Amino acid sequence: MTAEKSTSAPLALDRADARVKHEAGIGGAVRAFLDRVRSGDLGSLPVIVGLVVIWTVFTSLNPVFVSSSNLVNLLFDCSTVGVIALGIVCVLMVGEIDLSVGSISGFASALVGTLWVNQGWPVALAILAALAFGALIGSLYALLFNRLGMPSFVSTLAGLLAVLGMQLYILGSTGSINLPYGSALVDFGQLMVMPKWVSHTLAAIPGLAMLASGLRTFARRRAANLSAPSVTGLIVRVAIITIGLELIVAYLNQSRGIPWMFGLFVGLVVAMNYALTRTKWGRSMTAVGGNREAARRAGIKVRAIYLSAFALCSLFAALGGVLAAARLASASQQAGTGDVNLNAIAAAVIGGTSLFGGRGSAYSALLGIIVIQSIASGLTLLDLSSSLRYMITGAVLAIAVIVDSLARRSRASHGRA
Amino acid sequence: MSDSLEESASVGELVLSLRGISKNFGAVSALTDIDFDVHAGEVVALVGDNGAGKSTLVKILAGVHQPSSGTINFRGKPVTLPDPRAALTLGIATVFQDLALCENLDVVANIFLGNELSPLRLDEVAMEMRAWTLLNELSARIPSVREAVASLSGGQRQTVAIARSLLLEPKLILLDEPTAALGVAQTAEVLNLIDRVRSRGLGVVMISHNMEDVRAVADRIVVLRLGRNNGVFEPDASNQDLVSAITGASNNAVSRRAERLRIERDHSGSAQAGEQRP
């Protein structure tokens, strides 16, 4: 009966209902976008607007800000805290928080310094040990959360102090360990940039991948009698993205070029984005963040999902700590303290990941950290003291959370999740 | 439709059998010594007043709660249902009263939640097709399966929840108040759907407060009262019998109201008759 209906119907399977507006073409895509924004489904819009404002202001105050050498430095700085922010996205997706990422990153850098420089371990092994430690701490938080019902806010706050104590303990009286210049790790953190042809090739890949998967989806949806998005729109998007990326790469290549460390960060972001949007695990993460009980009744192993979220977050925090040590060529008592925690969380939230769980994207870590680091870099160029930097970064975070809250309310009243 | 009715010759096979199920929440006994049977191709209505333990019983069968004592036999084998996953794997699907949908996910994601096709590379096209097929089978009116569930009405959510329960081709479907949030036409659709599910040889347990709906589809009506079995009725049982079983007394609020109305009617009748006489 159903088969007859769908074959005889002139309309695609999902376009049979006359009450729903379906925008067609490029004009339609723009209108649909405006509609979404008006109802509070802002996506990456606030962060892009924010970025334009910040860059305009800082460039007008000091033109050095947009020089390609400053931007290359910015990318180096983004990579370390950005990786930590990527972990924060994971815990925020399930509606939890990890306040100890700064301490974990500091301890990871101290561990690498101690094991590698002081104990003479191979550097790869020292890094692996630091990452394993990170995953272990996250698993501990998950255990406390799953078995004892300890709110992650409290357990990670306790972890913040405990892990900071461990960091100070293993660094001992000397207080800091210098990592040897000329070693691969420090070069990776300070010097290594992509050759021009590599960066241009990599910049072309996202567009090509979008085109390939878009055309494949188009063909499959047509074959399945479902409405398919317009090919023209796809080609326009691909062209915009490819040209934009190539221009950015060309500009940065005028100076040193794209850091490999930033390449690693973007690679992790892309991998996490795939995992969160295209796998069963990612779907389960979103479901648990949206409605934990519903996810449980659907047969999802909720505890395992929490475990994966906390462990991944701490793992990324440890990796960020290792990268920070490489960037600074030292493991010190100051590593991971101060504003690292807040910057990582702020980056994830500014980028559009909701503090309330169930909404977010790996790209929010990338976009958010560029905003945060732009502010830090711009204020440094203006020679402002760290007191002002903290105040301004704090205000930006507050604005981001307000936007998140307001958008959430607006979505609720417009019947969007 | 009719030949599938013939095929379901296995009507009568015992799908589910509960013996002596009890459930305590602390000092409160929500269920005491419940016996309950469901056969293939049979719709069993579970009725009772608020707090009778209907939803608790359904949650035990769905693996959400665990019974304090008693045995569950499913298709002839004793089973335990430690979590919802176990119930789903056995073939017990549940549509909860509070629906249990994730509002932040779209319709397709909700229908396939926990059972996504190709877990490492989600097959969105195949899932969307299957979702439309299921929804069309239910004659559902869902504007778009790519909208978050938050944008759907109560009845549409109900349909999504029922579609999800059918996805895994279960042997037994539990419906907790399936028509409570629905309009007239949609209630009829859901009742039709229950008929269709029955004719496919599935066992159906339906909780409802609406006696009309219950009579329309049920093959048997099981009454719970204060967490205990309180009688099994045929759908043609009189309303009075059902109500007294549900409320536990032939002298209850419903019968008292009926009595009061009858007396008032008689009075006014005799008064009118008295006025007419002179």
Structural summary, described in words:
The complex is a heterodimer of chains A (417) and B (278). Chain A contains 17 helices and 2 strands. Chain A is an all-alpha fold. Chain A has a two-stranded antiparallel sheet. Chain A starts with a helix and ends with a helix. Residues 1-10 of chain A have low confidence and may be disordered. Chain B has 278 residues and is of the alpha/beta class. Chain B is built from 10 helices and 10 strands. The N and C termini of chain B lie far apart (66 Å). Mean pLDDT of chain B is 84; it is low at 1-10. Classes of the chains: A mainly alpha (417), B alpha/beta (278). At the A-B interface, helix 1, helix 9, helix 12 and helix 13 of A face helix 3 and helix 5 of B.
In short:
The complex is a heterodimer of chains A (417) and B (278). Chain A has helices at 2-8, 25-38, 45-61, 68-93, 101-118, 123-148, 152-171, 184-190, 196-223, 231-253, 260-278, 280-290, 292-297, 302-328, 340-350, 363-381, 386-413; strands at residues 176-178, 330-332.
